[in-house]
C-alpha cells in the first residue's frame, strides 16, 4: 500500500480533486440508476465477449487519449468482474522525447500516431464499480512497448475531453486515472520488472509475445476507501502545517 502521507502537497491535492470528480460523476449517474459501464452499453444490443465497446473505441483527437471496454469469457475473469477498460495514449499526445523501446521486432509507425502505449486496465464489477487495476504484456493489446519511466510521463496526458459516448463517463475515467496515479506508477514499474524476470527465466522465448504471460501487475482497489485515505492524508498534512506555524 502506498503511503499517501509521503506525497508532496501538490500531488495530494490533485488526488483529492480527482476523488471529488470521480464521486460527482458517480453520484450524477446513480440518481437515474445508471453506471459507468451502462453508459457504454446503452443501445448497444446484446453484450458480446471480446467485442469493443464502443465499436470504434473512444478517442480524443486533441489529447490523443483512447479507451475501450470489453469482457473475456467468464472463466477468464477475476472474481466479481463484469469486464474492463483498457486505456491508451497515442504518440501525438505523448511528452517530448518519449520513444518506444528499441526492441528487435519494433514495428514502423508510418503515420506517426499508431505506436500507442497501453497505460492500465480497469476491471469493473457487475454494479459498475472499479475493483482492480492491472497492466498487461505487449501481445494482449497489440501495443508498442515503452519503458515504464516513459509510460509514467504519459499518465497526465490521458484526458478525454468530449461528450461521446458519455460526458460523465469521460470525466470519470479521466479523473480515475488521476486519483490512482501513484498506484499506476507502481504497477508500471512492476510490469517492467515482471517482463525482465520472465525473459531471464525463459531465455528462449520473446517475453513480450509469450502467451503464458498475460497480466504483468495488478492491485485490487476500492474507490471509496482510497478517497478516504486521501482525505485523511490531507487532514493530517493541514494539521502538521498548522502545528509548524504554531497554530492550535
From TrEMBL:
Residues 17-219 form the DUF6969 domain. Pfam families: DUF6969. InterPro entries: DUF6969. It comes from the Bacteria. This is DUF6969 domain-containing protein.
Amino acid at each position: 500500500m502506498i503511503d499517501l502521507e509521503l506525497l508532496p502537497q501538490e500531488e495530494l491535492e490533485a488526488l483529492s480533486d480527482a476523488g471529488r470528480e470521480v464521486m460527482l460523476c458517480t453520484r450524477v449517474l446513480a440518481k437515474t440508476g445508471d453506471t459507468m459501464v451502462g453508459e457504454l452499453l446503452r443501445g448497444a444490443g446484446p453484450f458480446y465477449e471480446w467485442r469493443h465497446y464502443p465499436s470504434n473505441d473512444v478517442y480524443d483527437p486533441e489529447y490523443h487519449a483512447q479507451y475501450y471496454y470489453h469482457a473475456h469469457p467468464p472463466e477468464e475473469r477475476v472474481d466479481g468482474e463484469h469486464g474492463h477498460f483498457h486505456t491508451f495514449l497515442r504518440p501525438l499526445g505523448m511528452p517530448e522525447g518519449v520513444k518506444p523501446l528499441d526492441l528487435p521486432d519494433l514495428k514502423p509507425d508510418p503515420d506517426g500516431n499508431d505506436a500507442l502505449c497501453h497505460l492500465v486496465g480497469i476491471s469493473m464489477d457487475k454494479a459498475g464499480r472499479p475493483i482492480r487495476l492491472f497492466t498487461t504484456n505487449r501481445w494482449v493489446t497489440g501495443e508498442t512497448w515503452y519503458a515504464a519511466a516513459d509510460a509514467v510521463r504519459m499518465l497526465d496526458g490521458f484526458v478525454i475531453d468530449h461528450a461521446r459516448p458519455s460526458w460523465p463517463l469521460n470525466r470519470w475515467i479521466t479523473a480515475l486515472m488521476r486519483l490512482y496515479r501513484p498506484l499506476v506508477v507502481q504497477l508500471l514499474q512492476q510490469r517492467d520488472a515482471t517482463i525482465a524476470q520472465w525473459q531471464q527465466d525463459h531465455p528462449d522465448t520473446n517475453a513480450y509475445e509469450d502467451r503464458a504471460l498475460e497480466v504483468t501487475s495488478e492491485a485490487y482497489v476500492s474507490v471509496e476507501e482510497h478517497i478516504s485515505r486521501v482525505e485523511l492524508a490531507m487532514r493530517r498534512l493541514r494539521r502538521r502545517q498548522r502545528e509548524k506555524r504554531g497554530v492550535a
